[in-house]
Amino acid sequence: MKTVLIIDRALPLGLIANTAAVLGISLGAAAPEIVGQDVPDADGHRHRGITNKTIPILGGTGEQLRLLRDRLFAAEFAEVGVVDFSDIAQSSLDYGYYAGTLASTPGDRLSYLGLCLYGPDKLINKLTGSMGLLR
Q1: Does CATH number 3.40.1490.10 belong to domain 2-128?
Q2: Which end of the chain is more exposed for a tag (fewer CB within 10 A), N or C?
Q3: Alpha-carbon Rg of the chain, whole angstroms?
Q4: What is the pLDDT along the chain (135 residues), one digit of tens a residue?
């Protein structure tokens, strides 16, 4: 299984960090198997498990994110899990507002700030192989 984050490289640093944090939290809930066990240090203090996978953060444009999200509806990518973070999510102050606004917004009206993809290596590579790291 491979996991990648793709974030709009045009975002300011604070929104890039926020987008990565939100996607990471949602990924942990969607795929808890990628979180390792808690680990004690030499003094016996417990440290919470962190991801046991490498998660590259790739940079893209808003248009690339939209096209990538649309591709994920195709049957060939049914094994790929996705967490998306849109402009509606970023501007919502509570989950009820987010859910209500999203429910009344057509998909082609969403602007994506970031995506998290997880699934078979071959499919993730097919979707993101040409994208570079976010720097």
Answers
A1: yes
A2: C
A3: 16
A4: 999 999 999 999 999 999 999 999 999 999 999 999 999 999 999 999 999 999 999 999 999 999 999 999 999 999 999 999 999 999 999 999 999 999 999 999 999 999 999 999 999 999 999 999 999
The residue to which tokens 């996705």 are assigned: 82
Structural domain spans, the chain: 2-128
Tokens of 134: 């976010």
Give the pairing of strands 2-8 and 57-60.
Answer: parallel
Burial class (CB in 10 A: 0-12, 13-18, 19+), 123: middle
Task: From residue 85, give the alpha-carbon distance in Å to each of 39, 94, 95, 105, 129.
Answer: 31, 14, 13, 14, 21
